[in-house]
Amino acid sequence: MKCNFVKKTARTTILLLTFSFILTSCEREIGDDAVLATMPTTANIYTDNPIGLTDQFFESFDPASGANTVGFDVDNTVAYQGRSSIRIDVPAPNDPNGGYIGGIFRDRGLGRNLTGYDALTFWAKASTTAQLGSVGFGADFAQNKHQVTADNLPLSTKWVKYIIPIPDASKLTQERGLFLFSAGTQSTNGLGFTIWIDEIRFEKLGTVKLIQPYILNGANLTVDGFLGSTQVLNQSGATFNLANGQNITVNAAPSYFEFSSSDANLPQENRVVSNFALGNDGQVFTTVVGTTGSAVISAQLSNTLASGSLTINAAGTFVNAPTPTVNPANVISIFSDTYSTIPGFNPGIFAGPNTASITAPINGGNQHINYQSIDFIGMGWTGTVDVSSKTMIHLHAKLVGAASSNLRVELIDFGPDGVDNGFGAGGGTAGGNDISSQLIQDQWVSINIPLNQFNLATGGGGFGNPNRNNLGYIVLVSSNGASVLIDNIYFY
Amino acid sequence: MKIINYKHKVVALALVGIVFGFSSCEGDTEQEVTTKFDLVFSDEFDVNGAPNPSNWGFDIGRGPLNDGWGNNELQYYTDRPENVTVQNGFLIITARNESFQGFNYTSARLKTRNLFEKKYGRFEARIKMPQGKGMFPAFWMLGNNFCEAQSIDAQGNVFCDPTKPNYEEGNILWPQAGEIDIMEYLGNKPTEVFGTIHAPGIFGGGSLSKKYTLPNGRFDTDFHVFGVEWTENSINWYVDNVLYSTITKAQVAEAGGEWAFDNSFYMLLNLAVGGNLPGSPDANTSFPQRMLVDYVRVYQ
User: Fold this and answer.
1) Inside any domain, residue A34
2) CA dihedral defined by A386, A388, A392, A397, rounded to 10 degrees?
3) pLDDT tens for each residue of B38-63
4) CATH code for the domain of A469
5) Would you say residue B184 lies in a domain?
6) Are B40 and B298 in contact (CB under 8 A)?
7) Which residues from chain B sit within 8 angstroms of residue A205, using beta carbons?
8) Which residue of B has its CA nearest to A207?
């Protein structure tokens, strides 16, 4: 049977009518009046009870991160409105149950349709004037795709209404993450205090105005993009103006933004970067696919241009450090893709105040460490490592800063107690070796230092010639801000 | 233009309860608020370029007494396109943060003085406000015998100075000439506007004024209509389809004022920066800021 009908397409926002006569198969199309099933639009989150939240109600951040799970409660003697409020007892930093408190509230169902609202609002007061470390919505212990937070809002000892704008509510068609908070005693010098929160809900205020969205904290950055490297677009947010004339700036997940690249209209073979993708962690990233040219990444939020941009200069194929050839049986590896390494490596377990950045990019499946403009940095790992059976330390280094850069390598041993508690009585020993003369600009060099040649004194009181039974840190020190790539650190 | 809280009760509904208009409206709410529909003046701002010189002149500089137009406003008014232009169907008045003639802000102030002046009627404009503390836009009216050629005498008193080129015979000083503020707005209170009259006995801090608060919106994110209907006995103020203030001749007398509203007035549109009422721009006020006017219409 032929199905013959006039198909009329009408959009609610555009007065455009197209008429066409179409011969189709006999499949029923969705009529123009049909309303697609949507999630509930429940606005309330907490009034005198949690509204539509999970049974657990307060879902704490991981206690392993120091989150205190016992400081959250409902207070039936204090309320802004009604008979109860949420009570948060912010712990002291050394509280055995955890030194800060924070977590989320989630919808007990599949999520809510929040597209009709423009702000999260709540009332709060505290037992002393203090700052609320972080508050917002969109954290769901999954992708946190639409997370929004405001940092360090000032708390008063009387009830105040807080407004957290929704950057673009059209994105929130199915949201489980309804509320999040985090509080510590940074603003009270370590003294615990109490916060009460009440009347948490989403509202359509109509009085929230977007002033300025931003990505990359508003900075215009330029990076070299090696083929295959990923470039993350983060540090995004927006400033809004409220009805009381005050501005508020919130962190906003990159999913609220539309990203664009200046090379988007080039033929595929001339593209510098790929299309944008969303990672499992809610981050937006692009991959460098070209070896020549430049692309400028910019973004918009609600049709408003964001400040900040990322210029990616294609830098060709990254040359990784050579593959080490020492027999693995003779190696204790700290950092390398070739050898199995000791657990818990951290390329920047501490760093001096003038160190610009520490990153660990991966190119072609091979990871190195990029130290930019360092004064001093410490690499660490889980516990200590006994390298007394070895005679040498190896590392690959590629100087990417000025040719006159100086660099010293130091070894720090914690002593028999295995704990970093200083030299002298603490049992720690340390010594340094100057490798400045071995560095070559833009070239990987293989540096091999005998372990009995760490003779130089170190900062903090190391006398040189450290013990090697409880090695805790490898430190790099530069007096002129060296920038260097490091790979394949091992003892043999 | 100092403003205090309105002192008199609004007698709104009695005045506009029963209205029959000649428009083709289907009885929508606008008919309850406005009663005059015979269009006698309009500028739709449909021609790109400088504002139509048949309708608009400009106030330039800092005021005749060089005191920020009596309010310690911070801007220097110009007629440059950077500060005033018509584009894409809107009059755009732009306040800029720039060094000009020794001052740090520029903007514009337009007037229909000697071009369009009228006694009584409905005076209306559709406007979208700028944003931020220190922004002080207004749509208002002055009696056409208001003296612009002011000077200060040896005793420190303001007088109308016949030696100035813009002196007009018969001009009188403010507030004798009367002032009707159809709309004034402060950039750091985005949901409020206020309407005011100044006249002898009821001027400055003693003016009669009333505030209107938008229930679910802001004046700097959308256009809204601001107007007055002025008769020999009363002035009504409205925003969109809400009549929010009425002042009658009797109320003015009760307040110890003179009804200075029985002669022709002209209209002004301006965007001031800073001054006694709004305060100065702060770190969050970004420049340039724009006041957009879609149209100005006058009915009787």
Assistant:
1) no
2) 20
3) 999 999 999 999 999 999 999 999 99
4) 2.60.120.430
5) yes
6) yes
7) 216
8) B217
